[in-house]
Specification:
With 591 residues, the chain is α+β, with helices and mostly antiparallel strands. It is 29% helix and 19% strand.
Length: 591
């Protein structure tokens, strides 16, 4: 078995903090606690650390960060509240939203000061509902800076590897900016030079490593936090299964854990933080989704089966109820490989909004603005009793060659293997394509004709594709007059089947503003905290902007550890939420 920390001599151990789960929320708690001089155990159920966060986009959405202030985007808290009230509606929780708004900047600043974490403001990144009151085009979304995975040393091998569909050339990671350069390298010398540098670095990496060591997106986020955690002496137990919470007189005092064939009691003087990724891959997930007659695919790792809720049930912890959605939705396509294994691809940013791409249901009709957020797109699939699930993403050869679609790559990549596997359908005309897909041929021809007439004018009169700043941001900035619209006219034509899917669960344990889990009477459970997808979504299952899971995850992971540190009174010079940043210990990291 591939473990990181040597086997302890004693059967029972004691720490200041036990963090269950090694995603962004868990690592934020572990790093915060360790920087404040606390002894931390980080427990991961699987053989690799990073969880869903390691395969995410890595973006965070926060109010009034230092990065936003430097760029001149000093947005008011009331503007953020106004926007979130519009998006969330009846599920708006003032206590949690205020805690998020008031502490997000502090959490990020602390972690950037005392760890390897480093974010940059996106120059342009509209909220997902930019036309609503309080919405912005920039100032809230931040991009994780790339990272050299070699700084993890021996731990690099234990970092969760992204799926093959998220890698280029068998192991090269790219971020949102890199993707745009690859899509534009034939039209822009600057983009060509960017791509050549990336490929040169990757070629050198493969001489010594099984994959590229230039880490981006979620892998960079986890690697940055993990480097500091390990330097601070955080113990990591991989393939360790938390069995039950240890409770004394109503206070959570530790966890019983099975690790390396032994079951041991591990005590936590300050508390236990649940950050195990929610329940999206669990058996009970299906019963908490809208019903359709179609398959549903979650991008959540198989280990995310609701262990946090199971553990917390023993202390009568409250679970969120009547959310706008119990999951964060995303459309997913599925490739069955020759060996019988399945590869899932979430259609987030690379194809739906691009010119020459539309989505149609089984009746051959469009049903949604394809360039809206992935969460909105799946809401459209669920509409009308799930009549639009599954659906088909359709494009012509110009669009496929320029942008790719799903797992299909742009020219000059040969996508014939995907065609042979039945993942990518190819036909010389729309009628033939409809027959292959099993959709209404005459309706598809009519739909494309109507779309083409509008696209030629740069206006989608039916669903408004490309009609707001977020839509246009997701399109092709070099295409005019509308970055999202171009007629589908050049054969052959292509299609990929999309299923409803999700990025993880939104329904979780009810907490207060310090991430302290509440029981069914509304009282805090001493010693028990939750963050990430184990914590009930402060967005009530809505999706206001990019990074609305990782932003709160990092914030409330930080708040949980800060509350524990304050309660333990370890002679820290900082009390929670003062904005000061004095700590007992900081990691001495190499450059």
């Amino acid at each position: 078995m591939n473990m990181t920390t040597p086997l302890p001599a004693a059967a029972d151990q004691a720490y200041d903090v036990i963090v269950l789960g090694s995603g962004a929320a868990g690592f934020a708690a572990a790093v915060t606690a360790s920087c404040r001089g606390l002894k931390v155990l980080l427990v991961e159920k699987t053989e690799a650390f990073g969880g869903t966060s390691a395969i995410s986009g890595g973006a965070i959405w926060l109010h009034d960060t230092d990065q936003a202030r430097v760029a001149g985007h000093h947005l008011s808290a009331d503007q953020m509240r106004c926007y979130l009230k519009q998006v969330i509606g009846a599920g708006y929780n003032p206590q949690l939203i205020d805690s998020f708004i008031e502490n997000g900047r502090e959490a990020l600043s602390f972690l950037e000061t005392y760890s390897e974490l480093k974010y940059s403001l996106r120059p342009l990144s509209p909220d997902y509902y930019p036309d609503l009151p309080g919405g912005t085009q920039t100032g809230r979304a931040l991009e994780i800076d790339e990272y050299d995975g070699r700084k993890l040393g021996e731990h690099f091998k234990d970092l969760k590897r992204p799926p093959d569909g998220m890698l280029l050339f068998g192991g090269m990671m790219v971020n949102r900016v890199d993707i745009q350069h690859f899509l534009s390298f034939k039209r822009s010398p600057h983009s060509l030079w960017h791509c050549l540098k990336l490929m040169g670095r990757y070629a050198l990496d493969r001489l010594y490593h099984p994959r590229g060591t230039r880490l981006t997106v979620g892998n960079a986020l986890i690697a940055r936090l993990a480097t500091t955690a390990f330097a601070n002496g955080v113990d990591l137990w991989l393939q360790a299964a938390p069995e039950t919470l240890l409770v004394e007189q109503g206070t959570v005092t530790g966890v019983q854990i099975t690790w390396r064939g032994q079951t041991r009691k591990v005590f936590a003087k300050g508390g236990v933080v649940l950050a195990m990724g929610g329940f999206a891959a669990g058996a009970k997930a299906a019963g908490q989704r809208p019903a359709t007659d179609s398959e549903h695919w979650s991008m959540s790792p198989p280990a995310n089966v609701g262990d946090g809720q199971r553990l917390a049930a023993s202390v009568d912890a409250a679970i969120g109820d009547k959310l706008s959605a119990n999951f964060f939705w995303a459309p997913v396509s599925v490739l069955q490989k020759a060996d019988g294994s399945l590869e899932r691809f979430p259609h987030l940013v690379t194809d739906r909004a691009k010119p020459g791409v539309i989505a149609v249901n089984r009746a051959g009709r469009r049903f949604v603005n394809e360039s809206d957020s992935y969460h909105c797109f799946v809401e459209g699939m669920f509409a009308n009793g799930g009549a639009n699930a599954p659906c088909w993403l359709v494009c012509d050869s110009e669009a496929l060659n320029r942008y790719g679609m799903g797992l299909a790559r742009p020219r000059p990549v040969d996508n014939s293997a995907l065609i042979d596997a039945g993942y990518l359908l190819r036909a010389d005309n729309l009628v033939e394509l409809a027959l292959l897909a099993g959709i209404d041929a005459s309706a598809l021809v009519q739909t494309v004709a109507q779309f083409n007439a509008d696209a030629a004018l740069g206006v989608d009169r039916q669903f408004g594709k490309g009609s707001n700043p977020y839509n246009r941001y997701m399109g092709d900035p070099l295409h005019r007059p509308n970055p999202c619209l171009k007629p589908l006219h050049k054969a052959p034509f292509y299609a990929i089947r999309l299923f409803t899917g999700d990025l993880g669960s939104a329904r979780g344990l009810v907490t207060n503003g310090q991430a302290n889990v509440l029981d069914c009477s509304g009282a805090p459970i001493p010693g028990l905290y939750a963050a990430g997808n184990d914590m009930n979504s402060i967005m009530d299952g809505t999706y206001p902007g990019p990074g609305i899971t990782l932003g709160p995850g990092i914030t409330f992971g930080y708040l949980a550890a800060s509350d524990i540190a304050a309660r333990l009174d370890r002679n820290t010079t900082q009390q929670p939420h003062t904005g000061e940043q004095h700590v007992l210990r900081t990691a001495h990291l190499h450059d």
